[in-house]
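Hey all, sorry for the wall of text incoming. These are the two entities for the joint prediction.
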Amino acid sequence: MQPKLYPKFAVVGHPNKGKSSIVSSLALDDSVQIANTPGTTQVKRGFPLVVDGKTIYELFDTPGFQRARRILAWLQSQEPVTADKRADLVKSFITQHRDDPRFHDEIELLEPIIEGAGIIYVVDASKPYGAEYETEMEILRYTGQPSMAILNLIGDEDYREQWKRALGHYFRLVRTFNPMTATFQDHIALLESMAQLKEEWTEDIKTAIQVLTNLHQQKIDQTIDAIVTHIQKSLTYQEIQTIATDKATKVEESRAINRYQTHLIQQEKEVEKEIETIWNHRSIDKVENLLAFDNVGLFSKESASIFGLSQKELIVTGASAGALGGLGIDALAGGSSLLLGSLIGGVVGGVGAMLGFDNLYHIKLLGQQFGRRELTIGPMQNLNFPYVLLGRALYYASLLAKRSHALRNTLHLEHETFYTQQIIDSEMRKELEKLHTKLRKGEEVSEEMSEAYRQVIMKSFQALICS
Amino acid sequence: MKPSLNTYLDTVQLLKSYQGTHEANRTFALQHPELASKPQQMLLTWVSKYRFEITEPLNSKSYTQHFQAITQLSAFLFFVLGFLTGFGLLSYSGEAPVNVIYYLFIAMLLPIIGMILSIVSLLGDKNIGNFFAHFFPLYWLEKILQTLSPKYRTTLRTHVALPYTLQRWLFVERLQMLSLLFSVGLLIALLVMVVVKDIAFGWSTTLDVAPASFQSLLSTVGWIWHAWLPSAVPSIELVELSQYFRLGERLDSTMIANANRLGAWWQFLAMTTLLYAIGLRLLFWCVTRLGLQKALDRAFLHIDGIERLQRHFQTPFVTTQAPQVETHLPLTQTNEEPTVPTEKRAYPHIFGWNWTTEEMLLIHDSRQIQGKQTHEAGGSHTFSEDEAIARLAQGLVLLYVKAWEPPTMDFVDFLELLIDNPKVERIQLYPLGTPAQAYRSDPNDVEVWRRKLQGFNPAKVEIIDAT
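and here's what came out:
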C-alpha cells in the first residue's frame, strides 16, 4: 500500500524577508540560523511535525530567489504549453540545470514545490512593493501549486494595502504574520489558513492543530509541575553540617550558609533550564540578577544527638521506658502502689537520660563516638521568600512561553522584581500560604493540598501568558 | 512482577543519572502495548532495560549487603535470646516449681503488646511512629550498628533516603520476623527442657486469685485448641494442685505426690507459644509483608522522576524541528570598503536597479542630483535589456539600489556587466531608503550591501553612504 502523503509547505520568497524567522516560529525551533546577511539559508531544510514517528506535515525553509528573471526567461522561451503542463516546464528546468551553480538556490526552493509542496510566499510588508517581485510570483504560478502569501512586518512602516493589491493577483490567501511577535493563537490561525489551501490537506492540518494545542497544554502542565517542585524543594531544603564544638564557629556558620544559598541558586538555575527545555528555547541568551538573600534571616540551629536522637527525644524515650517498667511493678502490686512505680520509673528514666546525655555523647566504641553535633541551616522561615522564588519562576516561564522562537535578542530580566511583585496578589498569597506553612514546619503535604496549590499557580501562569 | 527494595533503590539511582528522552521513552511504551494498562509493570520493564545506565556502584548492593548482615546478625541474636529466655524461664532448681505466669507473660502477653505497639507505630503519624519505635530492641540494635559502621551510615544518609512510610514498614516487617525467631527459640527451649528435664510447673501470684478464676482465664486462652486437644488445657484439679505460695512449703507433699501430673502444663505452654507467639506473629508478619509491598508499590510510584517517565510513556512524542543540522554560513570579516560620504551632483549616466524612471526623478529632486541619462535596470526588464543598457554606460556611473532589498545574484550579474564595460571608469553604488524615509537608508541595510561588494574591484566600485 502506498504510504499516505502528508502536506508539505515550502516557505519561499526574496532573500532576507524573514522566511527562516517564520519557519523558526512555526517549527518552535530556535536553532534556525537567522541573520541580516542575505543568503544565510543556502539549502532547503525540512521541519516536519512528527507525532510518534508519523509525519503530519512538513515545512521547508528555502534559500531566496537569486536569478528569478533568468528562470522566467527560460520558462517563457520554451514551447508554449497548456496550464496543466506548466509544472512540467519547471521540472524540466530543474532537471536541466541541476548542476548549474548559478541556479543552485532556485533549484533548492523549487524542488519541494514540484514534489507537491504548497507555497508560502513571504514578503516584507513594511517596505514598498516593487515590480521585481512579479518575476518570482510568475515562476511560482508556473508550478501550479496551491499558494498563499504572508505579509511579514519587519520594519516600522506599513505597506500592507499596497502589497495586498498586488499579491491578490497571484495568491488565494494573503495573511499577516509577524514571527517576532506571534503568539500561539497566531500560529494556530496561520495553520487554519494553510488548511484552506487544498481540500486534501484540511484533515491533516486539523490534526496538526489538535496536536499542537495538546502540546501547548502539556508544556504549561510541565512548567507548573517544575515550578511547584522547585518551590517545595527550596522551602524544605536543609543544609546540615557536622561541627566540632557545642556552638558553631563563625567560619562554620558562614560556610554552611554559603552552601545553603548556593544550593538554592543552583536549584533555581536548574528549574530555569528545565523550563527552557520544555519551551524549546535551548540557546537563549539572558541577563538576570541572581537570587538575592538580602535581609532574609536564615534559620540556623546547633544540635547534638546520640544514635540520631536529640537530647529531648532521648529524655522522652528514657522517661517512657522508665514509666513502662514502673507500670510492670504497679501491675505486680495489683494497683496497690497507686501507679507510683510508673511515676518513679518515668522520672528516673527521664532524669537519667538528661544527666547521662553528655556522658553517653563522649563514649566511644570501636573508635566511633556515640554522639554527633550538627549545624542545620533551613528550612527557609522567611515568609516572603517563597513568593520571591515563585514570582521569579512564573515571570521567567511566562516570558519563555510567550517568546517567539524567531527571536534571537538577549532576554533582560534585571527588572523582574517590578513584575514579580505584581504577579502574586494578596488573594493568591492567602491560598498559597497554607502549603508554605506546612513546608516550613516540615509537615507532610497531602496530595489534595498539593493539587490545590498547583491550580492556583496554573491560574496565575495562564493569566500571565495570555496577557 | 512487583518492585523489591533492590528495584526501588536501583530505580532511584538510575533516575538520578538517566531518565531517557521523551522520544526514547515513548518509543519504549509503544513497543510494549500490552503494558499500557499496567503502569507499574511498564516502569519495572523500563528499569530492567536501562539498569545498565548506572555506571557507579549500585547503592542497592551496598545497602542490602549491610541490611542483610544486620538482619542475619539480629536473627541469630533474637533466636538465641529466645532460646536462652526459654531456658532461663524453665530452669528448675528443684526447690520451687517453674511459675507458668512468668512464661505466659513472655510467650503470650509480651508478643501481643509488641504487636499492638507495632500497629500503633504504623497507624500514628511520624512523631508517634518514631516514639514507639524506641521501645523495640531492634531500633537500638540498628542505631548502634549504624554508629559503629560509618560506611553504612554514609550510604544511608547520602544515597538511600528512603521515604518515612517505607522505612517504618521495613522496620516493622523485620521486627515481626525477628520476634518470630525469638518465639521459635522459646518454643524449642521449652520442648528441649521438657524432654531433657523433669520440670515441675506451678503457679503463684501475690494477687488474690482463686484457682477457679485462674483456670477460667486459662480456658479462655486455650479455647481455640480445647476442642481437639483437651489435654492441652489445664483442668481445675491441675490448677488447684499446682498453686503454691512463697511462704508455705514450696513443694508440699501433695505436689510431690502428684509430681507426674504437674508436668502436664507443658502442653498448654507449648500450645500457647505456638498459637500466640508463633502463629499470631506469623500471621502478623505476613500482613506486614503485604503492607511493606504496598508501601514499596506506593513509594516506587513517587520516586523523583517516575512521574516524568510516566508522562513520557503516555504522551505522544511530538517534534517540529529539522532532523538535519543546519550548515551555517561562515560569516566573513567585514573589510573596509571604499565609501564615498556624499554623492557628486552631476553624473553622465544614472542607473536605477529596480527603480522606475518616475521614482528616479523623485530621487534626483530629493537629493539634488543631475543625470544626463537615466536608465532602468532589473525590475520588470529582461536580462537582455539590462545587457543592452549596461553597454551604454561610460565614465562615472551612479547606480541607485533599494537599500532594504538585499543584493541578489541577479544584481551581481548586472554589476559585473558594468564593471566589465571598459568605458565605465567608476561605479558609485547608492543604497537608498524608502521615499517615506526621504531616501535615507538604514545603516544595517548599507552594511549588507557593503559586505556583498567585498571581492569586487575596489578601484572601480564604491558605495555612497546615505544613512
